[in-house]
Design brief:
heterodimer, A: mainly beta, four-stranded antiparallel β-sheet, 11 strands, 0% helix, globular, B: six-stranded mixed β-sheet
Amino acid sequence: DTEVTQTPKHLVMGMTNKKSLKCEQHMGHRAMYWYKQKAKKPPELMFVYSYEKLSINESVPSRFSPECPNSSLLNLHLHALQPEDSALYLCASSHSGRARDEQFFGPGTRLTVL
Amino acid sequence: RKEVEQDPGPFNVPEGATVAFNCTYSNSASQSFFWYRQDCRKEPKLLMSVYSSGNEDGRFTAQLNRASQYISLLIRDSKLSDSATYLCVVNGDPYGNKLVFGAGTILRVKS
């Protein structure tokens, strides 16, 4: 079952709030990813975790803080966001993080920052 | 130059038509290639991986030309349900998994 779940589906937050996005997969994958997608644009990679260690941070502002508590869970902690951070946040997973692995995406969290 | 470039679209085709999408990539070290489809306000879904020998899955055929750094997707006998944005995706990291997405091509199949 190629399923990645994300909660919440929608989130509205103020610029002073702290919130977290959650992602879970039960496919035994060892690599997990966060992407950001603005309207009418393709997804852009933010972070990669491989075997529960952060392996790629695409120069993402520190107001986004990823966390990988275990191999099936991935969180994205949000603090002091800006309205331009409003976007669809997608989580993905792949078998091991190797170059030829296929990535499978969750349904995303649609974030609005007021 | 963008790392992955696609036909801008949109492609408006009748049901039953054959349609082809093209994509070029700039990083010659790229190791793996994919086509994803994305429906409006949904997540990208993997359509197929693309191999050097080419591969086919039902009505869909993908080709890769490493020398020209060119990828294609052919859809035969288009269905209304094929209407979506098709994303050409390249992994530019030979040791890891760092996907770079093209801007996507919109396909609209009409009855």
